[in-house]
Amino acid sequence: MEDDREKILASIRRGIRGSDRISADRSSKSPLFARIGNDFKSRFAKFSSELSALGGEAFVAQTEADASELILARIEPNTSLFIYDDIRTNYGAFTSLLTESRQARFGIEFGPGYDKREVAIFDSAVSGCLACVAETGSIVMKTDMRLPAALAARLFILAKESQMLPTLDELFTDRFSNFEGSNLFLVTGPSRTADIEKELVTGVHGPKEIIVIFLQH
Amino acid sequence: MRVYLFVPCYIDQLFPNVAVSTLKILEHLGCEVIFPENQTCCGQPAYNTGYFEEAKLMAMHEVKSLISSASDNARIDFDFKNDYVVGPSGSCVAMLRNFYPGLLANDPMFSKLSAEFGKRVFEFSEFINRIIGVERFSGKLEATVSFHDSCHSLRELGIKEGPRNILKRIEGLKLVELPYAEVCCGFGGTFSVKFPEISASMADEKLKNLEQTGAEILVSGDTSCLMHLQGRARRNGSPRRFAHIAEIMAESIIGERA
Amino acid sequence: MELSSRNFHDLYKTEIRNTQLRSNLSKATLQAVDKRSRSFEEVDFVFLRDEAKKIKQESISLLNDLLSQFEDKARQNNCTLFYAQTPEKANAYILDVAQKHGVKTIVKSKSMVTEEIGLVPFLTRYGIEAVETDLGEYIVQLAGETPSHITTPAIHKSRREISELFHEKIGTVLNDDPSFLTAEARRVLREKFLSADMGISGANFLIAETGDVVVVENEGNARLSTSAVKVHVVVTGIEKVIPRFSDLRIFMRLLARSSTGQKLTSYVSLLRGPRTRGEKDGPEEVHVILLDNGRSGLLGTEHQEVLHCIRCGACLNVCPVYRNIGGHAYGSVYPGPIGSLVTPLYFGEQNAPDLPFASSLCGNCTEVCPVGIEIHHQLLAMRHEIKSARKDGLEKFIFRNYRKTMLRPGRYRIMGKVARSISRTPILKNLLKGWTAYRELPQFPSRSFREIYKSGQTR
């Protein structure tokens, strides 16, 4: 089907002809009133307070064993658990502790074009992340499988202290714009709606619970 | 200090006491007040209904008339450095100050004049706060009142605390804030007769909020809003009083209702 | 799209009598206004708004170049682009894509542009089911209605009404708890996500620098509509393109705050084309449809800045007119203050001649607009255009005579005196029906101010 590209672009050229080309001068000022401290402790405090306000939780764990404890305490024995491959590769001890007492499946068991219904059964998903943003309590993710994190009722994220960004200013930079792959996404608190009389309901299509654990290295 | 008194047409014809009170207060505060007799209407009803050409002609007439104390507009004696134009209506002052320059932008004579003129135009409470000094005024009146921000005063002129600061200078007067004070009362000029059901429904919301304050009088710097709210209140059977801030001030210095 | 804005007078008179509607709207919008104000405590609204306005002005002034740049990048990301001048063309293309893939069910996330082009009813006519997956949109679709708000489509409905609707349409038990109703919708929609092959979404921003499509949402339905499908179709307007990835630091801080009072929505998806090597899901094909439908015609006109709109809905929430009559009264998919501009501009002034007048010009819309559109001044300018184009009539006659009177102080004095002298007769009351049907006239004084002044009795 022939599209209207030339017609539309010509119409735009006619409209903007003679008008000034405006360049927004890039202000370096941050629109934030409250500056967030440089150290991890103050960034974590902000991240945690933002995420808690949305109904999520944030922790700092000393060891992988502590991290696995935190998760095991939150999921019942019969929970179906999905573990992203980056977790399996990067956190071996954590993964074995988790799978000792809980049934889990790994990303590697699924190939391209897998059956959606097979991942719709997971109650929980465990994944790493690219970054976290203290200002908003957000997690920045890029995964090789989009659906487990989008469908599970609980999402557990393991992060490194070094991944904590103070504000959105540090996220929307070249460092992140050059990502490889088809998508980058931010998760800020549980999936939610207020479409019925503005009453907040969480866990609409995605996670109702979001738990982020920062591992100290 | 010389003040050329701007009296919007509906105040002149329907609420002369607002203009009388304005005049009294300005003189009380030491101003020399001149009433330029050729002024009529600022043209806002035409402008807001989309009749810019009609409004433009009225704007030219009004500018010329307001800077001339003579009865024939022949001699302009307004001193642009020292004199002021002051009016008891945020809405009409916004027309003069904010909208005239745009409306008259293409007129060789009036484009510059209207901009210069605009700088000298003040809304009544604004004039007292910014030029005269609110501390120069004090009065006494036992009453519980709420203040209604007109949209033009609030958003076009940026007037919010000024009139409240004046009311706080009146001993015995209790000021109770209106819930949702910044929501429009629904007057909106010709809007009020083009869409009367919506306009009246907006008035009802405002009157409902007013009920909660326990105020005996609703005070405002814009009598147009008050005319609409009072008209609706009377239709609903409410006897509540609605008064311009100048009237309240005048009563507070004289001690009785004019 | 079904446009009934010509009947605004009939529509609003019906809606304003609906007290349930008014109470639903009042509660929801006032809550939204309050949440919005609080959400801006931590950031500088004026700074953000001015920056956003500058970026939008830049985007519009470079629209031609930015679209070409976006196009190049999106092609490199393996997206297919399609420019459509009209709704018909956009719809035909989408149908074609769907038919090529033998699609029966489409999962759709919120998109005002798809409402604008009437996509869902169009696809339905060709036997393709397009399910709205945003909860509010789903409710409205079940009810056979259209959205009444840009970001909260079912704002006009109470929980009881929704409970009854679900009971009737999807057989749930009568229970008006929002959590219960949401869970029921989730159950039905989960099955749709698992069976659908194609997803349709809008775009909040298109980034020229990277070719990204940015989708902002709270429920996770857009995440699924754009991920759990073989084919993803983005339908959006040409004005959505912005220059840089870094511009998001401004818009992301403004959009959710303006819309729902959140600092950020639960999900922000930056979509860069179909799945790449090493990815196991995500769409195999991504089509981006860029719709004009009257937008390019606004360039170079006084109304160009209307194209800055990011569809946050803040102007609807603060609008006292909207609060009293609701979105359906506007007879257009774009209601409220911004709708009163967009509707006549996109669909023709003759089709919405009353909308620019349906405002008290209180300016609250302009005050909250996150991209600095002077909405109420734009409405004024449209009033002027409409009146200038109109033939002589009674109203023009009245305004001409009113002007003539005001230019002659002597005549003004006499007319004032006459009007005041007949104030207690039915003549005046009849002349001012629009006023007196709902309000009392003030007590007309016997003397005007200037008469009192002349008499020297002001002291």
The average pLDDT score of chain A comes to 93
What is the CATH fold-level name of chain A? Rossmann fold
* Number of β-strand runs of chain B: 8
What is the CATH class name of chain A? Alpha Beta
Which structural class do the helices and strands of chain A define?
A: alpha/beta
| Strand order across the largest sheet of chain B | 2-1-3-4
CA-to-CA gap between the ends of chain A? 56 Å
- Largest sheet geometry of chain A: 6 strands, parallel
Mean pLDDT of chain B: 95
CATH architecture of chain A: 3-Layer(aba) Sandwich
Low-confidence spans of chain A: pLDDT under 50, at least 5 residues?
Answer: none
Helical percentage of chain A: 25-40%
Class of secondary structure makeup of chain B: alpha/beta
Global Rg of chain A: 21 Å
What helical percentage do the residues of chain B reach? 40-55%
The biggest beta sheet of chain B reads: 4 strands, parallel
Strand order of the largest sheet of chain A: 1-12-7-4-2-3
Which chain pair has the greatest contact? A-C, 83 and 105 residues
Tally of discrete structural domains of chain A? 1
Structural summary, described in words:
The complex is a heterotrimer of chains A (about 220), B (about 260) and C (about 450). Chain A has about 220 residues and is of the alpha/beta class. Chain A has 9 helices and 12 strands. Chain A has helices spanning about 5-15, 40-55, 65-70, 85-90, 90-100, 115-120, 145-150, 170, 175; strands at about 55-60, 80-85, 105, 125, 130-135, 140, 155-160, 165, 185, 190-195, 200, 210-215. In chain A, strand 5 (about 130-135) and strand 6 form a beta hairpin. In chain A, helix 3 packs parallel to helix 5. Chain A starts with a helix and ends with a strand. Chain B has 2 domains: about 1-130; about 135-255, 3-Layer(aba) Sandwich (Rossmann fold). Chain C is built from 22 helices and 10 strands. The model of chain C has no long low-confidence stretch (mean pLDDT about 95). Among the domains of chain C are: about 45-295, NagB/RpiA/CoA transferase-like (Rossmann fold), CATH 3.40.50.10420; about 395-455, no CATH class. The radius of gyration of chain C is 25 Å and the shape is globular. Chains in contact: A-C, B-C. The interface between A and C is large, with 83 and 105 residues.
